[in-house]
Each structure stands twice: as structure tokens, then as C-alpha cells.
């Protein structure tokens, strides 16, 4: 600039003759990238860099991620194929960096008593530990994994008591070192049911299925159970989606090329993650529900859609089989009863407590 000081400063360099000449911004960026990236990554012209800035992707961006190095704070956008971080749903086959296998924990002691417990504060209680049948279910699941030559390098499990026990059984049966068993503190928590927590499992399950099918919507934002004064959250499917999105994003960031076995405490969690991966509307989640001790190997968008198609085999309408539709019909009646009861609902725990006092 001149002596007035009002002109814009330009980055300057000296030419071979010693005179100072200006350097354009695009030329500066090209030279900066060249100083830290190999030649194979530098298919860039001055025109392709002319609009580069923080958060701006040029029309002819890098075709591979730039090699990190000192001074590369240029705001270049890494192409999606190389970005690792928050997973975007639905996924494409081959897009995930790890292979995944989903396992629901075996039957818990509370489930054996037909009690549905969802309060996250009580998931670790030993009353929710594996039942004898639950142990057998996990042992059979491990036999299936072995028969399919699945050797997990990472076993990630919920801190719910049934999932912890299932992880210990799986670790023993699959001969995994303790370093491969990694606890997950809350991203695998089941959906909490508010006022309907600790109600009879079988009847309430069908009511929740009917509510999600009829009111949940494609994104799972509808169908919320009533609130509870004891602190049990009342969640929609969308609330659980947030946790599952974080779960898979952490796994994809933390591991690469691993064989990951996930142990969920409930049947909806792995089914919901399956829907997200394959792009299945979330109000159909319970068509993919996991039974206690059920394992599904090599979970991919294609395998999920193939399974959903296979489950239509019962001859039902609306893309579901007759058994599932029958559960929805019974569930709608139970849902009406629960809603008509309002705050007068008494949980199994409170009913048993009152019985013990008399």
C-alpha cells in the first residue's frame, strides 16, 4: 500500500532480482498445500483454490485427504469418503469402517418375572441380572458366532446388569481377553418408559409397539409415554436415536477394520440402529425387534433389508406378517387401557410392595 495506510496489505515475496512482488491468495494457498502434501494430492489449480476458506469446499477439491502438517490451517474440506466422525444415516454398503454383529442380552431375572424395567438408574441392579435361561441363550448365541467364524476384536456392552453378565459369558465362550471387553456407559441404554416403567412386560410391550407403529412417524418423534414422578424419563424412539447415533459415531472414530460385537440390554436398541443404518422408517422398528439372546451377524444395509423382506413371509398386509399384526391389535387395546387409567397405574414393584406389607 501507499503512505496513506488505507490500502489492503498483500502477502509479499522477493523475486530472483531482489524486488518485492505481490502474491495472490490462491497462489499462496496452492504453495502452502504443496509444502505439506505429496505431489499425488496436488491436482489443484489456482482457479480451484480461488474460493477456499473455512467451511467452503471448492468445486475441484482434493480427491484425497491432505496430509496433516505444520501450518495446514487452511480450512480445506475433507471429502466425505475419508471423513471420520458423526455417522450419517442411512449408510451405504461398505461405508462403515468396521464389521458389526448385534446381540441382545439374555433373559434377565426381571424379564423372567414379566417385569419391564427401563429406569437408567436401576439398570445395574442385580435383580436385572441374567436368569439361568438367559445364560443358556448367550451360550447358544456364542456357538452360532463360532460356527460362522466370527471372532470379535472388540466386544462393547451396556452397563445394564443383564448385558454385563452376557458380556462375561460371551468373553468366556469366545475366549476373549479382558482388554477386548469394553463397557459403554449410556449410549446403549434402552428407551425409558416414564409412568409405564415396571409394568407387566408382555402386555406393555405390545402397547408400546402399537403406539410406535401408529404414532411414532418415520422419524420416531411421536408416541411419548406419560411422565413419571420417580425420575424415569419418558422417551420417544427419537430420544434413543440420539444415543445410538453417538454410539456408532464413537465406534467408527475409535476403531478401524475391527470386528465389533455389540451387546444391548433390550430388543429395540439393536433394531432401531438397524433401521437407521438401512434407512427403514422408524415406526417399523419393532418388525426387526430382537428376542432375548438373539444375535445377528454381519449387519449391513443389505442384510437388514433382506431380513425385513423375509419377515413378510407370514402373509400379512402392509409389509408385516400376521403374528406382528396380531400383536399390534392387542397392543392398541392395551394402550387404550393404559391411557384411560392415567396416574392410577400401579407398577409391579409397588403392587408387590403393598402385598408384602399386608
Structure keywords:
five-stranded mixed β-sheet, two-stranded antiparallel sheet, globular
Question: How would you describe what is shown here?
Answer:
- This protein is α/β, with parallel strands linked by helices and 358 residues long.
- It folds into 2 domains: 11-82, no CATH class; 99-352, 3-Layer(aba) Sandwich (Rossmann fold).
- The protein has 10 helices and 9 strands.
- The protein has helices spanning 25-36, 109-112, 132-147, 161-173, 201-215, 237-254, 268-278, 301-310, 322-341, 348-357; strands at 12-14, 20-22, 99-104, 115-116, 154-158, 181-184, 199-200, 259-264, 295-296.
- The protein starts with 11 loop residues before the first strand and ends with a helix.
SSE arrangement:
Elements: E1 12-14, E2 20-22, H1 25-36, E3 99-104, H2 109-112, E4 115-116, H3 132-147, E5 154-158, H4 161-173, E6 181-184, E7 199-200, H5 201-215, H6 237-254, E8 259-264, H7 268-278, E9 295-296, H8 301-310, H9 322-341, H10 348-357
Parallel strand pairs: 3-8, 5-6, 5-8
Antiparallel strand pairs: 1-2, 3-9, 4-7
CATH superfamily of the largest domain: Phosphoglycerate mutase-like
The figure for the number of domains is 2
Instruction: Classify the helix fraction into a percent range.
Output: 25-40%
Count of helical segments? 10
Class from secondary-structure proportions: alpha/beta
CATH-scheme architecture of the largest domain: 3-Layer(aba) Sandwich
What Rg do the Cα atoms give? Answer: 27 Å
Distance between the termini: 93 Å
Spatial strand order of the main sheet: 6-5-8-3-9
How much of the sequence lies in strands comes to 5-15%
Counting DSSP E segments of at least 2 residues, the number of strands comes to 9
Oligomer designation: single chain
> Can you tell me the overall shape?
globular
What do we call the CATH topology of the largest domain? Rossmann fold
Poorly predicted ranges = 35-76
Question: Topology as H/E string?
Answer: EEHEHEHEHEEHHEHEHHH
CATH class of the largest domain: Alpha Beta
Largest sheet: 5 strands, mixed
InterPro entries: His_PPase_superfam
